[in-house]
Amino acid sequence: MNSKTSDPTVPLAPHERLRGWGGMSAPGREIRSEDLRAVTEGAVLSRGLGRSYGDASLPPPGVTEVVGTSLADRMLAFDPATGVLRAEAGLSLAALARAFLPQGWFTPVSTGTWFVTLGGMVASDVHGKNHHVAGTIGRHLRSLVVRLPSGEIVTCSRDQHPELFFACQGGMGLFGHILEVELALEKIPSPWVWQESYQCPDLDSLLDTLEASASWPMTACWIDTLATGGSFGRGLAMRGRWAERREAPPRMPAPGLSPTVPFDAPSWTLNDLSMKAFNFVWYHKQLREAAIGPVTPHAWFTPLDAVKHWSRAYGKRGFTQHQAVIPREAGRDKVRGFLEILSRRGGTGFLCVVKDCGPQGEGLLSFPRPGTSVALDLPVNDGIQDLIDELNRYVIDVGGRIYLTKDGYTRREHFEAMEAERLPAFHAARDRWDPERRLRSAMSVRLFGDPVGPATTTGAGR
Ligand SMILES: Cc1cc2nc3c(=O)[nH]c(=O)nc-3n(C[C@H](O)[C@H](O)[C@H](O)COP(=O)(O)OP(=O)(O)OC[C@H]3O[C@@H](n4cnc5c(N)ncnc54)[C@H](O)[C@@H]3O)c2cc1C
Question: Does 375 sit in the ligand 1 pocket, CB within 6 Å?
Fold first, then answer.
């Protein structure tokens, strides 16, 4: 039962490093077990499938072991009358989809990859293409079982320890190790999605289409960041809803062979020309101005999962994602201004995804708030820190905020400026649940000034 895959008494070999999805890494290894209760005792951090882009799931300097939850992936109970699923925190969304889509159920909030765990989804309080109507995953949680920094194991919910329940949502693993998650699934008419996708020749038509689609349950846009002049901001605006049975094709296609990027691409493969070619093909991938009809849930939710290890296309230095929300009240011009920073600096990336965000979640640092979310994939190069700084100064000026689970480069002073209103409550909650800062990550050292090295009893480093 207790199948630890690594012996913590064995010193770390030089090659043993843990990685974030974008390639940021730190010396360390995962201690994995089917028994999360046993393995989280005294641990500094839990991580799921490492799909956070930067340093959120990396250990703080001086700590070499974190818990990897992916072996603890059992579904413990499901009530077909209410749709409530109780599962271990290491259950992946891919496994959940495999088990429940054919039965007419799915998670009410899906991320753009299914290689994430329930624990990771809660810790980032994730949102999907339906945020404007469904909110974050936190809205659909019933309860969590959590190992506190003190070692105690408690159940929390809206009625039991509600402060802890909300702190864990978007708490980036700093309030406790999530052991079990109870989540209300959504009943769906078929596993297919009815999609309408429109080519929009410029930014205004793209944002108009997004606004006009607000009554649709799921929306998102992809922008060609390399188009300039009259085509600036051109892209595809997509809206979708679960397809009714009568609209759904009779059979799901069998999964094909996934192409894979076998090793880190050489740095010269990623240049303006290859990016332009990619963006051109993506924009024209639908040959008509509008493509309407049923698509598979993979095509709708997780098109990137089709290529294994796609992040390797960015080469050895990797990439990062900057995702910010520009508040609705700042106005559309501020979205344009944000994208103009990128085109002025010649920033290139494969992906720029724009989403509509609804009301803020209940997590203390939950990311979305009413406005437009812009996510930019950016290759890491010598100018990356300058670019992130400039984007962040802009976000501060317009009253927006960034998404921690995508971040690896934001400076502490910038984060404090963005989150001046919410940070005092976040720090107060940590003082209450973890005054000695036993739970930490590389991110919490960078952004919250947490102490480095093994857990101590000397108190916080703030
Ligand atoms: C291609 C791609 C598309 C994405 N699309 C979206 C999207 O549409 N919407 C969105 O919101 N996010 C999106 N993400 C981000 C992703 O959903 C989050 O980073 C998520 O947290 C990753 O889950 P994970 O299990 O890999 O967690 P990890 O990356 O391993 O960890 C993320 C954080 O969660 C904490 N954590 C993990 N497990 C536990 C646990 N059991 N207990 C306590 N803390 C824990 C870690 O300490 C860390 O702080 C995307 C990421 C990728 C790579």
Answer: no
**Domain around 380:** 193-411
Tokens (6 digits) for 43:
């641990």
The tens digit of pLDDT for each residue in 68-93 reads: 999 999 999 999 999 999 999 999 99
Banded model confidence at residue 256, pLDDT cuts 50, 70, 90: low
Among residues 154, 187, 220, the one where a domain terminates is 187
At 407 the three-state DSSP class reads coil
Confidence band for 147, pLDDT divided at 50, 70 and 90: very high
Give 402 Cα–ligand 1 centroid separation in angstroms: 15
pLDDT band at 271 (very low <50, low <70, confident <90, very high): low
- Given a contact cutoff of 8 angstroms between Cβ atoms, the answer to whether 54 and 408 are in contact is yes
Q: Look at residue 233 and tell me whether its pLDDT is greater than 50.
A: yes
Ligand 1 centroid to 403 CA: how many Å? Answer: 11
In a domain, 1, yes or no: no
Nearest to 412 by CA among 436, 383, 388: 388
Query: What rounded mean pLDDT belongs to the chain?
Result: 92
Kindly state whether residues 304 and 396 are assigned to the same domain: yes
What number is the average pLDDT over the span 36-44? 97
In a domain, 457, yes or no: no
User: What is the pTM (predicted TM-score) of this model?
Assistant: 0.94
Neighbours of 154 (CB within 10 A): 15
- Looking at the structure, do residues 358 and 288 belong to the same domain, yes or no? yes
Length of the chain: 462
Positive/negative CA dihedral, 288, 289, 292, 297? positive
Per DSSP, helices labelled H in 239-358 are 272-283, 297-301, 332-344
Residue 201 φ then ψ, to 5°: -75, -10
Instruction: Give yes or no for residue 113 CB within 6 A of ligand 1.
Output: yes
Q: Ligand 1 centre and the CA of 52: distance in Å?
A: 5
DSSP 8-state code for residue 451: P
For the Cβ of 439 lying below 6 angstroms from any atom of ligand 1, the answer is no
Domain boundary among 411, 431, 451: 411
